[in-house]
Specification:
single chain; 419 residues; alpha/beta; Lyase, Ornithine Decarboxylase, Chain A, domain 1; TIM Barrel; 9-stranded mixed β-sheet; 8-stranded parallel barrel; 21 strands; binds pyridoxal-5'-phosphate; binds lysine; De-COase2_CS; Diaminopimelate decarboxylase; amino-acid biosynthesis; EC 4.1.1.20; diaminopimelate decarboxylase activity
Length: 419
């Protein structure tokens, strides 16, 4: 469920009609619902209760400071993968002891920043990273809490580009090598083993791959404890999928996911951490755009929008489907359009042959399910200003990232004196 519904034929974000936001901020613009973000966060906390747990929002899905603060104020932790994300989480007021640090390429500088600012744990992804972290922590006279990210060699049955838990993927260490590496970790200065981490991919629509991975983690927990390690925490990653097309079969709900977690690892006495991104933010946001032109091509009509692939890359990058709906209900969807942006690439196509009511220049459309991996993946390709963001709560809204002016964009470049 989300909070983007039609009232009197006009699509609203909570109680705010989207045309009001378009008039105030211009398009394209991302619009998020505070109520949906909060609701999705609570779905996970409820699903994992009564197990001790921490829901760490994957900042990569939506790193806007206001979104992080909203979730952080509700008690969420954060999963970060870079110094930039770490600093964002801290700037949003999230304490270090609720931040986990993932990623295959953490630099020593990033490790130092997190150790200085406070960190719940590093999810270590390789032996060289473990050695680097040991060096950094020991030199600082401190101890780094560590889980090792294991790669369980499970096929998440998701898009090729976002599967992370097969042996050919770059993530984690092979689970068969885990006991050796934990033995190494235990002997290293500046390292305190606290648990195990796993994340097998994103947009999973079936619980079976999670279950297979978590069963392996449960076995490993027992084996590591028998080896004398303290395994108090299990970070089970993110990855639960969302319905992108209203007509598609519905992916499992957080409640079903929670029941599966209790079934597979619930009896180990561990604190459970999860790192959902998409399920919390995805359906909490839409990308609002305007029709610039309706162009009649040969055998097809192009709906040319003011949003482009640089604002929402998912269709071009993964062939992803986003529902595209008219903001003002316009009758039966009896026209078929190729929905495209103004960028000079044929890949700048959001959808082909999409049935919509008859549209004309100036009409507003909304891309649904755009709150995760939307604004964060935006670029300024074609010198297009980075797309702004708005947060709605009840009957009011605020711009939470302004559209930069062209002067601001120009001012970031510098001309060398010798030119
Ligand atoms: C380590 C890690 N944690 C969490 C996530 C969040 O995944 P999702 O947005 O699918 O919940 C990702 C992205 O796949 C990830 O790589
Ligand atoms: N960016 C991807 C998800 C990547 C998940 C990050 N590990 C998407 O839009 O679906």
């Amino acid at each position: 469920m989300d909070h983007f519904l039609y009232r009197d034929g006009i699509l609203h974000a909570e109680a705010v009609p989207l045309p009001e936001i378009a008039a105030a901020v211009g398009t394209p613009v991302y619009v998020y619902s505070a109520a949906t973000l909060a609701r999705h966060y609570h779905l996970f906390t409820e699903a994992l209760s009564p197990l001790p747990h921490l829901v760490c929002f994957a900042v990569k899905a939506n790193g806007n400071l206001a979104v992080l603060k909203l979730l952080g104020d509700l008690g969420a932790g954060m999963d970060v993968v870079s110094e930039g994300e770490y600093r964002r989480a801290r700037a949003a007021g999230v304490p270090g002891d609720r931040i986990v640090f993932s990623g295959v390429g953490k630099t020593k500088r990033e490790m130092r920043t997190a150790l200085e600012g406070g960190i719940r744990q590093f999810n270590v992804e390789s032996e060289p990273e473990l050695l680097a972290l040991s060096e950094v922590a020991a030199a600082m006279g401190t101890t780094a809490p560590v889980t090792l990210r294991v790669n369980p060699d499970v096929d998440a049955k998701t898009h090729e580009k976002i599967a992370t838990g097969r042996k050919e993927d770059k993530f984690g260490v092979p689970i068969a090598r885990a006991r050796d590496i934990y033995a190494q970790a235990a002997a290293l200065p500046g390292i305190a083993v606290v648990g195990i981490d796993v994340h097998i991919g994103s947009q999973l629509t079936d619980l079976a791959p999670f279950e297979a991975a978590y069963a392996k983690v449960a076995d490993l927990t027992r084996a590591l404890r028998a080896d004398g390690h303290r395994i108090d925490r299990l970070d089970l990653g993110g990855g639960l999928g969302i319905p992108y097309a209203r007509s598609n079969e519905v992916p499992p709900l957080p409640l079903d996911y929670g029941a599966m977690v209790r079934r597979t690892v619930g009896d180990l006495g561990c604190e459970i951490e999860i790192e959902p991104g998409r399920l919390i933010a995805g359906n909490a946001g839409v990308l609002l755009a305007s029709v610039v032109y309706l162009k009649h091509g040969e055998g097809r009509d192009f709906l040319i929008l003011d949003a482009a692939m640089n604002d929402l890359i998912r269709p071009a990058m993964y062939g992803a489907w986003h529902d595209i709906v008219p903001v003002v209900e316009g009758g039966a969807p009896d026209h078929v359009y190729d929905v495209v942006g103004p960028v000079c690439e044929s890949g700048d196509t959001f959808a082909r042959g999409r049935p919509l009511p008859p549209m004309t220049a100036g009409d507003l459309v909304a891309f649904r399910s755009a709150g995760a991996y939307g604004a964060v993946m935006a670029s300024e390709y074609n010198a297009r200003p980075l797309v702004p963001e708005v947060l709605v709560s009840g009957d009011h809204f605020a711009v939470i990232r302004a559209r930069p002016s062209f002067d601001e964009m120009l001012a970031r470049d510098t001309l060398p004196a010798w030119l």
